[in-house]
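User: Let's play a game. I give you a shape written as tokens, and you guess the letters that built it. Ready? Here's round one.
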């Protein structure tokens, strides 16, 4: 699976890592801290903000990827129609940006060390 996060130094702000629809997804979660939301609620918001459609499955897979990286939380509940996954953010936008910056620096440092180790072999 392709990673949800890809750094593009030619862009600015959140767009260095995320696409527009991903930013709207995050902004929805940041606007409702700790509130659990269904993929459908988030997807509907994103489509309205973009004024075009993005696949609901695409939004789900992005949220799933972020949850695996512990950047968003989720819980499962049973509702009409079976099991539902509810996503939420434990962080506001400021904390999220700080965490992403810290993760980016740590990743670059690890890659430099790994590269240096391989070079010294």
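Assistant: Ready! My guess for every position:
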């Amino acid at each position: 699976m392709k990673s949800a996060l890809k750094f593009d130094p030619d862009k600015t702000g959140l767009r260095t890592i995320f696409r527009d629809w991903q930013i709207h997804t995050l902004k929805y979660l940041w606007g409702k801290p700790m509130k659990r939301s269904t993929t459908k609620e988030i997807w509907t918001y994103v489509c309205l903000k973009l004024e075009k459609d993005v696949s609901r499955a695409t939004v789900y897979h992005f949220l799933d990827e972020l949850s695996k990286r512990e950047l968003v939380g989720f819980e499962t509940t049973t509702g009409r129609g079976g099991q539902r996954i509810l996503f939420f953010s434990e962080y506001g936008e400021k904390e999220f940006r700080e965490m992403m910056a810290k993760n980016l620096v740590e990743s670059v440092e690890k890659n430099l060390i790994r590269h240096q180790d391989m070079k010294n072999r």
